[in-house]
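#lab-general

N.A. 3:47 PM
ok so I finally got the sequence cleaned up, no stray characters, all 83 residues accounted for. can someone with queue access submit it? mine expired

B.Y. 3:52 PM
send it over

N.A. 3:53 PM
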Amino acid sequence: MATWQLQEAKAKLSEVIAAAKDHGPQVITQRGVKAAVVQSFDSWEQSQQPKKPTLLEILRCGPYFEIPLPPRGQMRHRKPIKF
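B.Y. 4:20 PM
back already:
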C-alpha cells in the first residue's frame, strides 16, 4: 500500500488511480496524517458484497438457554423392560 501526500495526489491523480488498479489501495496523507484511501472500483465493489455467515456464527447468534441437569449420582434410572 503506497502513501501519497495530498498535494502530490492532486497533481498526479491519474497516476494514483492507475496505481490503485494495478497495485491495490493507495493511502493519501494530509499534513502527515492518513486522511483517505483510493482503491479500484472492483476492489471496493467486492468489499461491499455481504459476507455469508458460517454455521458457527449462525449458532452463536441463536438463543442461549441452559439445560438443567441433576447433580451427578442423584438421577433415577429406569429398570430395564423384560420381554
